[in-house]
Write a structure and sequence with these properties.
By secondary structure, the chain is mostly beta strands. It has 1 helix and 10 strands; from the N terminus they run βββαβββββββ. The protein starts with a strand and ends in a 23-residue tail after the last strand.
């Protein structure tokens, strides 16, 4: 079984995942750009496959009616995105320790992307979320 670990910048929040990680989704929505400064890259794991240490240091921000974002309350690192109706959680790719073995997957919310960069790879691109 694949086990991956990671943390926030200050290591007040540490995590381990069990099982294979999904291909990366690159989200270009306005919220992700404002939270991270660019776009985010995230993989998903089932809720039961995430072990979290320092959960008391995660602040959850309700960013939209059906989802929330988790970040470290000490250093501000963006860590998680969670839909209220999903049984999985998105984890920011940059929070993982190396080696990640993460692979690119697709781009979502391309219609909202910043005007200061181009998306010029051959990955699938969706104007909004995946259907």
């Amino acid at each position: 079984m694949d086990i991956h670990s990671g943390s926030c910048l200050c290591a007040a929040v540490r995590f381990k995942t069990r099982g294979a990680l999904t291909k990366l989704t690159y989200c270009h929505c306005t919220q992700c750009r404002k939270q991270t400064g660019l776009y985010y890259a995230a993989t998903n794991v089932q809720d039961g496959d995430l072990e979290l240490e320092g959960a008391e240091n995660v602040t959850w921000y309700r960013s939209s009616p059906g989802a929330q974002r988790g970040f470290c309350r000490n250093c501000g690192s963006a860590l998680f995105w969670k839909s209220d109706s999903a049984e999985d959680i998105s984890i920011m790719a940059g929070a993982f320790d190396k080696p990640t073995d993460l692979q690119p997957g697709n781009h979502i919310f391309c219609a909202d992307k910043g005007d200061f960069y181009d998306i010029d790879d051959d990955l699938p691109k969706f104007e909004a979320g995946r259907s």
